[in-house]
């Protein structure tokens, strides 16, 4: 959708100056002059763009891979050598990654860049703008962007260095995870009084007060894992701060799927904080990020069905172990999946492919392998390494390319002239607040406002399925509900760890080593910061 942080000449100049001074050690005031700095609230918002652009960068690609391909939610196997990519996806599935794993490295570099860009913007804009309410609000927003990056880094890598000073290039050692948690908590709490209470168009794509409360709720729900201390009652209080605002509501069944369409945006009642994507703006600024879901999820045989301007590859799919959670035929969330026999959008015309008998099945042994063969596309649930187990390869034929149910929650964008999509990606939604509160109560948090775990779960379910309400809920019920609600939204690894399921078996993965709950510090990071030490098990 639209990037709310307008890309004009003024923003381009600020972005250039912030980027240009990345490696410069001389004082900032020797390079910049007051006449190019923001003179009003609107310009200040524009000048805050680089940290948001940095956050958008790798979120829907590398970060998605880390959070989803390491779980039972998604798998990206090779097909006839295609998508083997130096074992990168294989390692994520098997939990066999090393400190030289490509996505582990790129995600560390990306989050470090978000933090560094935020430090730059806070320093430059903080020193040059006269004190005002608008300045305090926008600086608080930038601290929230940095806090989000630190949260993601803490969640993925455990103990990480803390650096908040722009221009300080000295090596920083890692800090204990509990201390990083406390740092983020303090940053968010200090920002809360200055963050806007407004939601909708005016603050869309930017961190408001309720983004802060949502992040605190997520941290408190996971606090026992991060710090060793339970904070479930605090999670309930943080959730209540969002609920009591009255600004958000659960989208009804009629608009659940529309929340993720290419034309989504501030009109979505559930979006607390979303990352906007706009291929057109990205073409001008080079900062749109990589929102490539259709490329990875739509079968190439359905290019015409979705009117895509490119041929997708669809190398990734879900696993039966995850899809089993979609067991209610009355649930609207089933509509996010492509499965079984495929039809065009009229629901009548079959999606067909014409190939040869050998092209359909590479292991076909008949003498007529070159004979033309037309079939209706049928997406099957199981993933079978028919060609080579060692190289994670299904084969390079139609059978292989049709293995696995595909997720099209972030509906393919036919309007884009590139592989990039307009679909904005929510990081925090109101339904997450509802389910986090339910879970926190189940885990021992103090119930409030007359709400119980079962009443909260049913509040969500009443907007998702026509099936009967639940009479009771367990933690496993909440887990299954989260699988249905947040598929493809980068939360599943976090959930699996908290529910004690990350060491389980799925697909071809059997590794139960608990050290795999965090990733290694990448080799390249040691070159930049020799004060780092490696995580246990690596």
Short description:
With 538 residues, the protein is mainly α. It has helices at residues 9-20, 41-47, 49-57, 59-69, 88-94, 102-128, 133-157, 177-191, 209-221, 223-227, 232-243, 279-285, 293-297, 320-323, 357-360, 398-401, 430-442, 453-461, 475-486, 492-498, 523-528, and strands at 271-275, 337-338, 340-341, 352-356, 372-376, 378-379, 406-407, 425-429.
Major beta sheet summary:
2 strands, antiparallel
Would you state the CATH class of the largest domain? Mainly Alpha
Rg over C-alpha atoms, rounded to the nearest angstrom = 24 Å
Mean pLDDT: 91
CATH architecture of the largest domain: Alpha Horseshoe
Q: Compute the number of strand runs.
A: 8
How big a fraction of the residues is strand?
5-15%
Contiguous runs where pLDDT drops below 50 for at least 5 residues: 6-34
Oligomer: single chain
Structural class: mainly alpha
One letter per element, helices H and strands E, the order comes to HHHHHHHHHHHEHHHEEEHEEHEEHHHHH
Count structural domains.
2
Distance between the termini: 40 Å
Give an account of the 3D structure.
Residues 237-538 form the RagB/SusD domain. It comes from Spirosoma foliorum. Keywords: Cell outer membrane, Membrane, Signal. Residues 78-221 form the SusD-like N-terminal domain. With 538 residues, the chain is mainly alpha-helical. The chain has two domains: 41-294 and 419-528, Alpha Horseshoe (Serine Threonine Protein Phosphatase 5, Tetratricopeptide repeat); 295-407, no CATH class. Helix content is 40%, strand content 5%. It has 21 helices and eight strands. It has helices at 9-20, 41-47, 49-57, 59-69, 88-94, 102-128, 133-157, 177-191, 209-221, 223-227, 232-243, 279-285, 293-297, 320-323, 357-360, 398-401, 430-442, 453-461, 475-486, 492-498, 523-528, and strands at 271-275, 337-338, 340-341, 352-356, 372-376, 378-379, 406-407, 425-429. A two-stranded antiparallel sheet has the order 1-8. A two-stranded antiparallel sheet has the order 2-7. A two-stranded antiparallel sheet has the order 3-6. Helix 9 (209-221) packs parallel to helix 17, helix 11 (232-243) packs antiparallel against helix 17 and helix 17 runs antiparallel to helix 18. The protein is globular and about 80 Å long. Mean pLDDT is 91; it is low at 6-34.
């Amino acid at each position: 959708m639209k990037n709310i942080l307008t890309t004009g000449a003024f923003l381009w100049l600020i972005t250039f100056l912030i980027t240009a001074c990345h490696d410069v050690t001389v004082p900032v005031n020797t390079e910049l002059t007051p006449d190019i700095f923001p003179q009003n609230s609107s310009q200040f918002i524009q000048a805050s763009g680089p940290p948001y652009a940095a956050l958008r960068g790798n979120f829907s690609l590398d970060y998605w891979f880390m959070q989803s391909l390491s779980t039972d939610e998604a798998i990206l196997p090779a097909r006839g050598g295609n998508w083997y990519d130096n074992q990168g996806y294989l390692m994520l599935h098997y939990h066999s990654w090393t400190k030289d794993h490509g996505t582990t490295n790129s995600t560390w570099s990306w989050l470090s860049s978000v933090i560094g860009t935020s430090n730059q913007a806070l320093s430059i804009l903080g020193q040059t703008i006269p004190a005002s309410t608008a300045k305090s609000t926008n600086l608080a927003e930038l601290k929230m962007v940095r806090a989000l990056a630190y949260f993601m880094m803490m969640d993925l890598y455990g103990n990480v260095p803390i650096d908040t000073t722009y221009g300080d290039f000295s090596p920083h050692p890692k800090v204990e995870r509990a201390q990083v948690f406390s740092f983020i908590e303090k940053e968010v709490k200090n920002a809360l009084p200055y963050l806007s209470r407004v939601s909708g168009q005016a603050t869309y794509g930017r961190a408001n007060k309720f983004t802060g409360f949502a992040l605190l709720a997520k941290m408190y729900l996971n606090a026992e894992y991060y710090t060793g201390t339970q904070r479930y009652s605090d999670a309930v209080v943080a959730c209540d701060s969002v609920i009591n605002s009255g600004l958000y509501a659960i989208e009804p069944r009629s608009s659940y799927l529309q929340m993720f369409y290419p034309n989504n945006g501030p009109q979505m009642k559930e979006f607390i904080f979303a990352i906007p994507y706009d291929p057109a703006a990205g073409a001008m600024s080079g900062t749109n990020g990589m929102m490539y879901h259709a490329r990875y999820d739509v079968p190439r045989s359905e290019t015409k069905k979705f009117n895509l301007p490119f041929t997708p590859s669809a190398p990734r799919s879900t696993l039966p172990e995850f899809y089993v959670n979609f067991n209610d035929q009355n649930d609207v969330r089933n509509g996010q999946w492509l499965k079984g026999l495929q039809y065009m959008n009229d629901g009548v015309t079959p999606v067909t492919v014409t190939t040869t008998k050998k092209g359909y099945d590479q292991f076909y042994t008949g003498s007529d392998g070159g004979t033309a063969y037309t079939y209706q596309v049928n997406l099957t649930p199981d993933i079978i390494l028919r060609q080579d187990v060692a190289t994670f390869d299904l084969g390079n034929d139609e059978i292989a390319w049709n293995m696995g149910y595909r997720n099209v929650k972030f509906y393919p964008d036919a309007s884009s002239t590139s592989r990039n999509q307009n679909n904005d990606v929510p990081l925090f939604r109101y339904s997450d607040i509802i389910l986090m509160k339910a879970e926190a109560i189940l885990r021992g948090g103090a119930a409030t406002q007359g709400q119980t775990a079962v009443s909260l779960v049913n509040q969500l379910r009443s907007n998702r399925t026509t099936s009967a309400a639940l009479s009771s809920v367990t933690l496993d019920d909440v887990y299954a509900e989260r699988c249905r609600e947040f598929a493809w939204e980068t939360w599943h690894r976090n959930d699996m760890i908290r529910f004690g399921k990350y060491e389980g078996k799925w697909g071809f993965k059997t590794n139960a080593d608990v050290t795999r709950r965090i990733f290694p510090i990448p080799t390249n990071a040691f070159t930049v910061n020799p004060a780092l030490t490696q995580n246990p098990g690596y």
